[in-house]
Amino acid sequence: MNYQEAVGRLNKPRNQEQKKVANNTVLYWTEDQCIMLRLHATNIIVYYPDGTMVLSSGGWKTGTTKDRLNDYLPNGWQVIQRAKVWYLVNRQWSDGDGWKIIVEHPFADGMTIHPDGTVTGAASKTKVKRAEQLDRMINRYSKTFVEQLAAGEVKPPSHGDCWYCAMRSQNGLPLGEETGRTDHLDAHLKERYYVPSLLRRAVEVSGASIAARDYLTALWHGASPEEVDRLYFADIAKDQLRRALRVYLRRQYGLAS
User: Fold this and answer.
1) In the chain, what are the domain boundaries?
2) What are phi and psi of 157, to 5 degrees?
């Protein structure tokens, strides 16, 4: 979809200042005659009258965000994902070869598609390499974290935990989230410091199952690892805890979920 098509969506069947176009997704006018596509609280596409478009994930590189971008980008443009990294690509149809990628740009919040088809503001190759490295580190860290937890080596959260993981702001967020800092996470990944408060926060925001929460509660309330493995759905719980850590850490670093 381009600017003129967005105007048409808002003007039909009657002129509207905003219009719901999908679940949790609205199109709306701004005072300077731009049109925003908003998913939840994030403007993921800004359509300008001259045909320029600015894209953003708002830090939520989820499947839903990617789907919405793809539903409302102009024909030929698409966001794809490889190794937890997003790319904005332009594809063209060839009768002999099917769809072919003509141009490809690493995705970055605030990147701009100009009316002539050029793109500015894409992520650098250095950032892409860093993202791929981070994802490998996160996978290893999450796996070993849960192994140490299952062995009884990760104790309950305490005042001795990393302050940026444990301390909460007035908004109820861990200090690291509130300030947007990830340097403490860099240290945890590098030093293999398995912070209990980090796991607690990951479970809090992940929607982990009752099995995973009960497993964690039992371990942190005195049950032995052997008892927990016998009495709870240990394999399911451990798999969900690993996933909760991966998703949470990727989100903090702005990687795709």
Assistant:
1) 3-122, 126-253
2) -55, 145
